[in-house]
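Quiz preparation item.
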């Protein structure tokens, strides 16, 4: 067999894949650790009382800021992707992104008003540079081994979910049980470790991701033989106008609410200035999108319409799914009975120990395999990675020891308690952290992803519209569970003690919904969109995700208004009904969209 350009990476393998994949695995794991760790705490921190170290914001203001933050995170990926492709290369983009995120988490750990806002800004830009470019390196590494790519992405996303799980588990625990600074700070420490090990191991990627030069640009242009359809000056002006309005709206929406109207760049448009601004931006962009579609052949145009249809559905999916760090975390914190006694306390402690230790053992085993292949060439990077795992093991064991002690199943001397920085307790108590429930999403993904993958590869693989319909139906089922659980909470109640089982069911059904929709959507973009338009349509896709993320914040903003008037259950039933309507719409549109896809499955 003649050697391909990427065969060099397969000369040193771990579990049948290039060692470089696992450098990316651990870098992405620490980035997701930091992102999800901080995200799980943000709403709780903003709404916590002053005596608990929070800012005592209303849920409306906290959700407004949260929605704009996660929306901007996805919009910024277009900026980061552009700079990586055209200016600095994938590697520098990853390092710049990781550095900005490290500074962002450090800034948030200071906990002043200025430092929190500065931290969020740094995290937005950091995610923008980091997020799109890790997968680009994976793709380049496997471009001559397409048969290995599915397995590579499976391993890579295991790293994503492992990072999300441990970030929520440990940062959430420290933030809730010890102090917000510790939760925010831990997220930054591991982002820093991830950045260092990536930078020190970068030669393992050969020429992939280096800064573009004249030679590489010429080579790329020679490979791209597609006919161009460049943007005219008027179209570029329309993009600039809608982008500027949307950006100002994302920033102004929370600012105007938090300041009580003192800060409002759209005040000249009247009391509904925010709404006028964003509707204007969307109308201009939609007109531009429709016009661009008319410039292509009938088949290409119809495929693009199909992608846009799926992007539209994706808005609703993320707007409801992303209630996890928002209204569902509020529900867990204020309305769920999280205190366990007797046998249930033992069951939780044992289960929590298993789901903490077993993944750590598996990932540590992978780390040892990586050491065997790369330690001679990248000793310092491996030492840094091992130090990060020693710290993770120490925090995990400390967390479990603290839980067993506070539950009354472990006796510790006063000297030991002082050394471990554990407060002495006189009454045994097992209380599940509110952020713990968010870890279930990662656990269920790791457990269920192989089953769904087998389903998609079988003869029973549903059509695209049916997958979306099933996903939105499962989303509705999850929201129906929590709505039913909240049915006994009276209108206006600020606290309650609902069973935890309803939240566990929510995360189970929502994870299955995510497996039906999230990976499938991006797959259809790559299948349906011509190469010359892939960047633009990925931009449209991430715009849809950003709108969905902001939509999640807007739903969350109204939780108190709806709960005070109709009860909390009404709020979740409303989300369930929206989900089921979108599910039925997707299924009913199946024959139309199938025709527009021209045989693509």
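Solution:
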């Amino acid at each position: 067999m003649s050697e391909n350009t990427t065969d060099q990476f397969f000369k040193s393998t771990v579990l049948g894949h290039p060692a470089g994949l696992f450098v990316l695995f651990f870098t992405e794991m620490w980035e997701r650790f930091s992102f999800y760790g901080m995200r799980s705490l943000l709403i709780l921190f903003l709404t916590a009382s002053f005596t608990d170290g929070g800012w005592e914001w209303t849920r409306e203001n906290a959700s407004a800021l949260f929605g704009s933050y996660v929306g901007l995170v996805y919009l910024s990926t277009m900026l980061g992707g552009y700079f990586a492709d055209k200016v600095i290369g994938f590697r520098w983009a990853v390092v710049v992104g990781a550095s900005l995120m490290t500074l962002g988490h450090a800034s948030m750990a200071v906990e002043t008003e200025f430092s929190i806002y500065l931290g969020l800004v740094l995290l937005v830009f950091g995610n923008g540079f980091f997020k799109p470019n890790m997968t680009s390196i994976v793709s380049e590494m496997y471009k001559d081994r397409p048969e290995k790519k599915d397995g590579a992405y499976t391993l890579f996303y295991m790293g994503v979910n492992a990072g999300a799980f441990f970030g929520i588990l440990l940062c959430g625990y420290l933030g809730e049980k010890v102090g917000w600074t510790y939760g925010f700070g831990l997220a930054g420490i591991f982002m820093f470790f991830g950045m260092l090990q990536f930078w020190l191991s970068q030669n393992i990627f050969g020429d992939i991701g280096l800064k573009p030069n004249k030679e590489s640009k010429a080579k790329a242009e020679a490979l791209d033989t597609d006919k161009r359809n460049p943007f005219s000056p008027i179209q570029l002006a329309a993009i600039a106008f809608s982008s500027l309005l949307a950006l100002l709206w994302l920033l102004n929406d929370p600012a105007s609410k938090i300041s009580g109207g003192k800060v409002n760049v759209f005040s000249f448009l009247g009391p509904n200035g925010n709404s006028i601004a964003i509707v204007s931006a969307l109308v201009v962009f939609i007109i531009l999108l429709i016009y661009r579609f008319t410039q292509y052949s009938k088949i290409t145009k119809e495929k693009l319409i199909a992608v846009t249809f799926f992007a539209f559905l994706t808005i609703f999916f993320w707007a409801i799914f992303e209630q996890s760090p928002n209204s569902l975390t509020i529900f867990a914190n204020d309305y769920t009975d999280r205190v366990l006694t007797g046998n249930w306390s033992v069951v939780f402690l044992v289960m929590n120990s298993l789901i903490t230790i077993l993944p750590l053992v598996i990932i540590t085993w992978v780390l040892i395999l990586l050491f065997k292949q790369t330690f001679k060439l990248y000793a310092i990077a491996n030492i840094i990675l091992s130090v990060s795992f020693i710290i993770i093991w120490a925090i995990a064991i400390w967390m479990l020891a603290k839980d067993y002690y506070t539950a009354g199943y472990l006796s510790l001397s006063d000297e030991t308690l002082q050394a471990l920085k554990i407060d002495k307790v006189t009454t045994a108590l097992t209380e599940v952290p509110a952020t713990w429930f968010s870890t279930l999403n990662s656990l269920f993904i790791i457990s269920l992803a192989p089953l769904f993958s087998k389903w998609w590869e079988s003869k029973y693989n549903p059509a695209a519209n049916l997958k979306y319909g099933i996903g939105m139906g499962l989303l509705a089922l999850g929201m129906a569970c929590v709505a039913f659980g909240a049915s006994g909470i009276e209108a206006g109640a600020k606290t309650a003690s609902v069973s935890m089982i309803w939240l566990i069911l929510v995360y189970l059904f929502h994870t299955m919904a995510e497996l039906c929709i999230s990976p499938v959507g991006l797959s259809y973009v790559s299948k349906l969109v011509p190469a010359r338009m892939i960047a633009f349509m990925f931009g449209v896709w991430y715009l849809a995700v950003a709108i969905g993320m902001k939509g999640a914040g807007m739903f969350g903003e109204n939780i108190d208004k709806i709960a005070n008037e109709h009860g909390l259950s009404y709020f979740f039933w409303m989300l369930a009904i929206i989900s089921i309507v979108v599910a039925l719409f997707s299924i009913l549109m199946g024959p139309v969209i199938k025709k527009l896809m021209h045989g693509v499955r």
